[in-house]
Every structure is written in C-alpha cells, then in structure tokens.
Amino acid sequence: MYHGRTLAMTVLVALQPLVVPVGMEGQSTDECDGRASLRILVVDESGFIPIPEATVVLRWTDAVRQPVRETAGTDGHLLLCAPRDAGEATLWAEFGDASSEESVVALEAGLPHEVELRLLLSDAGTGRLIGHVRDAGTDDPVATAAVSIIGDPGEVSSNRRGRFVVSGVPVGRREITVRHIGYAPFRHPVVVARGRTTEIEIGLVPEPLVMEPLVATAVRLRRLETRGFYERKYWGELVSGGTFFTAEDIERRNPTRITHMIADVPGIRLGGCGARLNSCRLYNSRIPDASSSEGCLMSVYLDGSLVVRRSRIGPGSSTNINDFVIPIEIAGVEVYRGPSELPAEFAGMESRCGAVVIWTKS
After folding, report:
1. How many CB atoms sit inside 10 A of residue 269's CB?
2. Which of 123, 150, 185 represents a domain boundary (last residue)?
3. pTM recorded for the entire structure
4. 235-262 burial, b for 16+ CB within 10 Å, e for fewer?
5. What are the Cα distances from residue 172, in Å, to 177, 191, 202, 255?
6. Domain final residue pick, 123, 142, 159
7. How do beta strands 355-360 and 299-302 pair?
8. For 63-102, what is each residue's pLDDT tens digit?
9. Three-state SS for 202?
10. How far is residue 205 from each of residues 201, 202, 209, measured CA to CA in Å?
11. Secondary element (H or E) of residue 180
C-alpha cells in the first residue's frame, strides 16, 4: 500500500528552459536536438510495478544549472533532455514520504541513457541529508570530501561546489562523518526526521589549525520543499533573482501585517492604504504604470493560486494580501520585482510588474 498523496512539483527554470521534458510515447532522441537524453522509469522495489506521477528530482552535478523537479507520467516514464554543457546528472525519485536511492549518470551527447529508479516504499521511515562542505577558514567549497553515516556502509562524495546528498537515512539520532586529506576528521550528531530533508553546513578545519569545527543544521518544511521553495531560494540568492523570507525571518521581525515587511524590499512600496492600513496594496515603483501614480501593482500568489491580479482591479475587488493571510500563518514568502527575476511558473502578463508568492504552513 502506498502512503502519502502525489504532490504536483514545479520545475525551477529561468526564462529559457534548461531541460525539455517530453512524453515517452512516439518520441525519439531527435527531440533533444543532438543532446543527451535521460529515459527515466520509476518503479516499486521489485522493479515490476510502475509508479504513476512520482516526482523525479535531478541535478546537473558538473554544470552551474538550476535543478529540475518533474512529474513522471501515468506509466511511470519521463524523458528529459540534458543541457549541452552538462556531462553528469544525479537524480532520484520521490513519492509521498518514500524515495529512491540516487543514480549518477555520465552523459554523452546524442545518446539516450536508460535510468530505473526504484522507490523504497517499505523503507519510508527514513529521511534525507543535504549538505555543504566548506573550508572553515576561507569559506571555499571542499570537493570530493567523503561523507558517511556511522553504521551505514555507504558513502557519498561532495561535488566541486562542496554539496552532497545522502538518501534513505534511518530516522532518529545519527552521526555523520566527513573526511578529506588535509583536514581534521569531522564527526557530528544529527537528528533525521521521517520523510524530511535535514540541511547541514559543515566547516572543515585544516589539520595544522587548532580550532573547533563549525556546523549548523536546519530541518526543511516538507510543504515548502515539495513546492520548490528551497530550490528557488537557493538559485535566486545565487544569481540575485528574488528576495525570500522564511517563517523564522517573519518570526524574528514579528510584523503586524506582512505587507509592511515585504515593502522593505528595495523598489517596493505600499499604496492605496487610505484610512485603513490593512487595505494597503504592494506596488513596484521601478516599473511605471499609466493607470496609477503609485507604480505598477504586483500580482500575489497564495499557495500557488493567483489571488491578486492587475486585470481585476475594480469596485468590490480585493487587491491586498492582508485580506487573505496573517503573518503567523505564513511558512515562506518569495518576492520577484520584475520579469527578469520571475521563475517560469509565476511568469506571464499578469506578473509583468513582479509577483509576491506566499506559502502557508498548512
């Protein structure tokens, strides 16, 4: 029996897509225009039963490209075309709380690559570790560091940006070890939650130095992870594409209204407040709009649905966030100030003035 419900995932892409998902039926590698293709099949542990609409997560491990989240078809199949500069891909599948082991594929242009991902459905009482290994003194990433969990014979290596993923970690209190030539061995306890991803930052200390290693952990909210919030936050902060607030950020600020916190982002202002502060709207002052002296009215998404749109301003229409949600209900906020920052899932004419994307805790 499969537990958990299928969640619709989003693909984090720039305005020009980095990969092109296409259906498996009636398609050939010509669809990829000479690029490498990945023909993925998601099945159960036995390898005989396809898992419909499972989520495939893929990272181009040797190219600075945004990660991909795509949903397999009803037959468990998915075809992806690789970017021309990608030579390797790391991917796994998720379905509810269950996940597969990672598969690392070396890509060759013009060739199809068959990948079978088996969901460990009976092993759903596990979690995942995602981490970043860096030099505690210089803050530079440490590549090829050997990462393992005490009691588990498996081992993974950090990539050239110092990042690693350990899947299928049994829940509970575990101990992670990291080794690399030239650095003092690292050991640290970490708590793994069922069906959750725990993020860990590790600062390795060079052998000659006498100092304590640095470590910080944070458990990601499952709801935000499945909605792609953390992926967009990672890449947005990497290329200055958007401003992001977590529940912890909002709790520290403790704003009376979320609009006042969002309006602190440069280029965004409150307008249309009148005598009722709760009715304030968010405008992008960097984009002129002939219909308003305040600026260009921003679109607002709540849990993926467009609730404030420029095309529906008028008597009786609600155009402010405070009517829909209060700060203590919010798990995360994404703020995009124009088309150049918008990810594909929130792009379009309705969002030409920018968009505010709000995710609630439940």
Report:
1. 15
2. 123
3. 0.50
4. bbeeeebbbbbbbeebeeeeeebbbebb
5. 16, 6, 20, 35
6. 123
7. parallel
8. 667 778 899 998 999 999 998 888 888 898 888 767 788 8
9. strand
10. 13, 10, 7
11. none
Decide if 127 contacts 171 (C-beta within 8 A): yes
User: Is 134 a domain residue?
Assistant: yes
Bridging pattern class, strands 243-246 and 330-336: antiparallel
Name the burial class of residue 266, with classes exposed (0-12), middle (13-18) and buried (19+) by CB atoms within 10 angstroms of its CB.
exposed
10/8 Cα distance (integer angstroms): 7
Question: Percent of the chain, pLDDT > 90?
Answer: 32
Same domain, 168 and 245: no
Number of domains in the chain: 3
Show the domain range for 160.
126-220
In a domain, 13, yes or no: no
Specify if 10 maps to a domain. no
Which CATH number is 186's domain given? 2.60.40.1120
Distance from C-alpha of 229 to C-alpha of 69, rounded to nearest angstrom: 12
pLDDT of residue 240: 82
Cα distance between residue 341 and residue 240, in whole Å: 8
Contact 305, 213 (CB under 8 A): no
Residues above pLDDT 70, as percent of the chain:
83
318 band by pLDDT with thresholds 50, 70 and 90: low
| 176 and 282, same domain (yes or no) | no
DSSP state of 74: T
Quick one: which of 208, 143, 212, 216 has its CA closest to 178? 143
Q: Are residues 327 and 299 in the same domain?
A: yes
